[in-house]
Design a protein that fits this description.
The chain is mainly beta. The chain has one domain: Neuraminidase. It is built from one helix and 26 strands. A four-stranded antiparallel sheet has the order 1-26-25-24, with no helix packed on it.
Length: about 325
Amino acid sequence: MGSKMKKLFLLFFISFILFMTSCVPPDIFEPEELKPLTEKVIFCGTFGFSGPLDGMLISPYDLTTDKEGNIYVADTGNNRIQKFSSSGEFLMKWGTLGTGNGQFNSPLAITTDCSGNILVLDTANNRIQKFSPDGKFLMKFGEPGTGDGQFQTPYDFAVDPRNGNIIVADTGNARIQVFNSKGKFIRKWGEPGIGNYQFSTLFSVDVDHLGNIYTLDLGLGIIKKFNSNGKILRKWGQVGTNDAEWQVPYRLAVDTAGYVYVTDIGSFKIMKFSPQGDFILKWGKQGGEPQNFMSPLGLFADKSNIYVIDFMFCSIKIFKIVLE
């Protein structure tokens, strides 16, 4: 076949293909309509039961995890900290009742700092203690009182992941106090009342990856969101039985993406909200089954799981949210 014939044949072939594809109805090549993904909560397991021995808990209040997935529990009734593996295996403990370094009187909250150290809110001693991951005492700050850097029964605290600042829910003084990572006082806001910059019963606080501060006021039944300097950005929440309402909100936790989780001990549920306060989902019901609750109290959310303390069962329940 000559060169001219080859060119004519190729031109004819291309024209034929273009003609045929133009005759095909366009919807044949359109993808199947995608269904919106929904979030599903999966129960992953539980560990812990009541008692004073290693691995046993009495009135646990709070928990946190480290970068390796180990779980640290504020074993409040035993006045100690216990460390578990990600699967719930007991690893170590430290602490006894007292006022000395490494001793506690009702430790109600626990978290990690930017270096992986463990911070404990020693509530009845009105102070914060810092430890290495293996329980070695490093430092402390705080004392009883109403002045800057003093506390009256603080109930919760959090660490700003951007700079290591420590934000304390100074419950008895109805205020938020902010400290640097060395315990130096930076700022405060709040007083008793019902206004935007006032608190009734300040029970919980957490910080998102942008430095925004979320507070849960048990007395008012609302969450307030502040920027890192204490300017209020929004607030939401009310008592009720609808999806976006709660009965007795007790603790909140913010995950690494900024979503907010709340334990509602009045309805035995966990609730999830967007950073803007939009309701997303809730789960849980009253019952003795492993995945259910009798008293959902403390909680923590990391990049993988949501951990919930069932106060009455003295146990930790682990959940995961997946898209399907």
